[in-house]
Design brief:
With about 575 residues, the chain is mainly beta. Strands 2, 28, 29, 30, 31 and 32 form a six-stranded antiparallel β-sheet that branches. Strands 1-5-4-3-33 form a five-stranded antiparallel β-sheet. It has a four-stranded antiparallel β-sheet with strand order 6-7-8-9, with no helix packed on it. Helix 2 packs antiparallel against helix 5. The protein is globular, with a radius of gyration of 23 Å.
C-alpha cells in the first residue's frame, strides 16, 4: 500500500481550528421519528426569546432535573464531551473561500462540485447525544478550470431554525436518549408541552438531514432517514442554499431512506422508508422528473428492521431484513429503543422494481447477513433460463455494537447469489479486510460491475467513537468468477493516507460519464482527508486506474472538515440545470 505524497511530503500550516462549541443549555433527548409536511423557512412562525423567557426558564429547569435525577450515567457513545472531540467536533459555517492547490492539478473533467454531508451539532447539549444526532452540515468544494472554492453550510431544517433562534439545544435527539424508559417519557412529555403551547411545529419535522445527499429529478437533496428530504441549491459562487423541505406535492407524508438508488439510464430513483409500527417497510419510486409514485407497503416484514440501504437491478429492488431493529416495546423490555434480535434469521427481499403491491415479493433467508450499505446488484440467468440475482455488500459482524461500540464492528465484503428457480442462496467472501463506505462507478448501478472502491477502517479504533478510515482500496470482484481465490486477492490497488491521517467515504467521478466506450475505472476517486497532527484537512483526487491509486491533486482547505458520512460529485452542466 502507498502513502499520499500530498499529505506526507507537503508541509501543513496550522490553519484549521479545532473548535468545540460550548453551550450552557441543557439537553432534550430522544422523541422518535415523525411525520413531515411541507416546510417553509418563515422565521416569524418561531417564538422569540422575549415572549417566552419565563417559559424557557421553566423548560430549562425541568431539563436539568431530568439529567440530574432520571438519566443513567452517560455511556461514552452518547457523552458529547467524549465523542465530539478532535475531528469529530463541530465547526462553524464558512462562506465560499478560494483554496490553494498544493499538489498536482485538478483535472478538467472535475469541473463541478463535490459535496459531502455529515453531523455537525449547532449546540452541544449537557445530556446524552450520539454522534449521529448532530445537525446536518454539507462541505462542498466547487471546481472550475483548475481552481477550487470551499464552502460549509448547515442544512436549514425546521429543528435548526428553531434552535438557532433560541440559541439552545431543544429538540429531542432520535438516537442519543433512547436509553431508559423514565427519561425518555419525561423528555417526550416536555417536548409535547412545547408543541401544545405552540412553540414548535411538529408537522415540519424534527429531522437533522445529516446523512447523505442525492441528485434526482433535476434537484439536489439532503437526506436523513428520520425525516423528509431538504432541497438544496449550489450557487454559481459555490455557496449552498437550503430551499425547502420536500413532500413531493403531498405524496411523501413521512420519512424516507437516505440512500435512494438512481438508475443511470432511466434517471428514476428507487427508495423506501422503515417505521417502528406496522407496516414496518414501504417501498416507492420517483420518475425521471422527480414525481413520486404510489407507496407499496411491505406487510410481509413482520418486525421492525433498521434497513439503511437498498439495491436495484434492471428487474428488481432488493431490501434486507436485518437483526437490528427499533421497537417501542424495547424501552420497557430493556430500556433501549434499538435492539438486536440474535434469534432472528436475516432475510433478503426481492421485489419487482415496478411492483404496485407486494404480492410478488420473494424472501430468502441468509443467516448472519446484516447489511448497512449495498454495493450493487445485477441480473443473470442460469443454463435453464431461471432468473439469478447477484448482490455485493459488506456484511457487518457484531451488529449489536452498532450504536454503542462502533469500534468493535468488523465487516466482510460478500457476494450473494440467489437462484430463483432452485431457491438456492450461495455466498462468497471477497475480502476479510474491514472495509465500509463502498462505492462504484455510478454508471454501473443495477448492472454487472467489475470494480468496487471502499474505505479501509483503522486497525485500532478509538473506544466508543465512530470509525475513522485510513485509506481506500480497489477490489476487482469480476475475478470471483475465475474459481476459488483467497479473499485478499480481490484487492488490486490501495492507497493509505499516511501517519495520523484519516478520511471517509471515497466517491468515484468518471472522466466522462456519458462516454460508454470508456473503461469502467476511467476516472478519479475524491475524498476529504484530515491530518490530526497538524489539524488541517485536504481534498484529494486519486487516479482510479493507477495500480497505486496515485494522487493527482491535493487541495488545502481553509478550515477543518470533520469526519462525516456520504457525498457525491455533480458535474457543472447538471449544476446549471438545477
Amino acid at each position: 500500500m502507498n502513502t499520499i505524497p500530498g499529505l506526507m511530503h507537503i508541509p501543513f500550516n496550522s490553519l484549521a481550528k479545532n473548535t468545540f462549541k460550548s453551550q450552557t443549555t441543557l439537553t432534550a433527548s430522544v422523541f422518535g421519528l415523525n411525520e413531515g409536511l411541507h416546510f417553509t423557512t418563515n422565521n416569524e412562525s418561531q417564538p422569540t426569546l422575549a415572549k417566552h423567557s419565563l417559559l424557557e426558564t421553566i423548560f430549562t429547569t425541568l431539563d436539568s432535573a431530568i439529567i440530574k435525577f432520571l438519566d443513567p450515567p452517560l455511556h461514552l457513545s452518547v457523552d458529547p464531551c467524549y465523542t465530539l472531540t478532535g475531528n469529530f467536533a463541530p465547526v462553524d459555517e464558512m462562506s465560499p473561500t478560494e483554496c490553494e492547490v498544493v499538489y498536482g492539478f485538478l483535472p478538467p473533467c472535475l469541473d463541478g462540485v463535490y459535496i459531502r454531508n455529515g453531523p455537525n451539532p449547532q449546540f452541544i447539549p449537557s445530556g446524552p447525544q450520539h454522534y449521529l444526532d448532530g445537525d446536518g452540515m454539507v462541505h462542498a468544494i466547487k471546481i472550475s478550470q483548475g481552481r477550487a472554492t470551499f464552502c460549509s453550510r448547515y442544512i436549514k431544517t425546521n429543528k435548526y431554525l428553531f434552535e438557532n433562534q433560541l440559541k439552545s439545544s431543544i429538540v429531542p435527539n432520535v438516537i442519543g436518549g433512547m436509553k431508559g424508559l423514565a427519561p425518555f417519557v419525561a423528555r417526550a412529555a416536555l417536548f409535547c408541552a412545547r408543541i401544545v403551547l405552540g412553540q414548535y411545529d411538529i408537522g415540519k419535522g424534527i429531522g437533522v438531514a445529516n446523512t447523505n445527499v442525492a441528485f434526482f429529478g433535476g434537484r439536489l437533496y439532503a437526506l436523513c432517514e428520520s425525516d423528509l428530504p431538504y432541497a438544496l441549491k449550489v450557487k454559481h459562487n459555490g455557496d449552498i442554499v437550503t430551499l425547502d423541505q420536500q413532500d413531493f406535492k403531498g405524496k411523501l407524508s413521512m420519512n424516507m431512506t437516505a440512500h435512494p438508488k438512481i438508475d443511470p439510464d432511466t434517471k428514476e430513483a428507487f427508495a423506501f422508508r422503515y417505521w417502528a409500527t406496522y407496516p414496518h417497510m414501504t417501498y416507492f419510486r420517483f420518475d425521471a422528473k422527480g414525481n413520486k409514485q404510489k407507496d407499496v407497503p411491505i406487510f410481509s416484514m413482520k418486525e421492525p428492521s433498521l434497513t439503511h440501504d437498498l439495491a436495484i437491478t434492471q428487474k428488481y429492488a432488493i431490501i434486507c431484513d436485518i437483526q437490528l431493529g427499533a421497537h417501542p416495546m424495547n424501552l420497557i423490555r430493556n430500556g433501549s429503543l434499538v435492539s438486536v434480535d440474535k434469534t432472528k434469521v436475516p432475510r433478503i427481499g426481492v421485489l419487482p422494481r415496478y411492483a404496485t403491491d407486494e404480492s410478488d415479493i420473494k424472501w430468502f433467508q441468509v443467516p448472519g447477513f446484516n447489511v448497512f450499505h449495498m454495493v450493487n446488484a445485477w441480473d443473470e440467468s442460469d443454463e435453464y433460463g431461471n432468473d439469478v440475482l447477484v448482490l455485493v455488500a459488506p456484511n457487518i459482524f457484531s451488529i449489536e455494537h452498532f450504536l454503542e461500540r462502533v469500534d468493535l464492528i468488523q465487516a466482510s465484503m460478500e457476494k450473494v447469489t440467489i437462484n430463483f428457480g432452485t431457491g438456492v442462496v450461495s455466498r462468497q467472501t471477497l475480502s476479510t479486510d474491514n472495509m465500509e463506505f463502498p462505492v462504484i462507478n455510478p454508471a454501473y448501478i443495477a448492472k454487472k460491475n467489475k470494480y468496487v472502491y471502499a474505505a479501509i477502517c483503522e486497525k485500532t479504533p478509538i473506544k466508543a467513537k465512530m470509525m475513522r478510515t485510513i485509506g481506500v482500496a480497489k477490489l476487482d470482484i469480476a475475478t470471483s468468477e475465475e474459481g476459488n481465490k483467497e479473499p485478499h486477492k480481490y484487492t488490486v490497488a490501495s492507497r493509505m493516507y499516511g501517519d495520523n491521517c484519516f478520511g471517509g467515504e471515497p466517491f468515484f467521478a468518471a472522466r466522462d460519464p456519458e462516454d460508454s466506450n470508456l473503461a469502467e475505472d476511467d476516472g478519479y476517486l475524491v475524498s476529504y482527508v484530515h491530518d490530526e497532527s497538524s489539524g488541517e484537512s485536504r481534498f484529494l483526487v486519486m487516479d482510479a486506474r493507477s495500480p497505486t491509486l496515485e494522487v493527482v491533486a491535493a487541495v488545502k482547505l481553509p478550515q477543518r472538515v470533520p469526519y462525516g458520512l456520504h457525498g457525491l460529485f455533480i458535474k457543472e452542466k447538471y449544476l446549471s440545470s438545477m
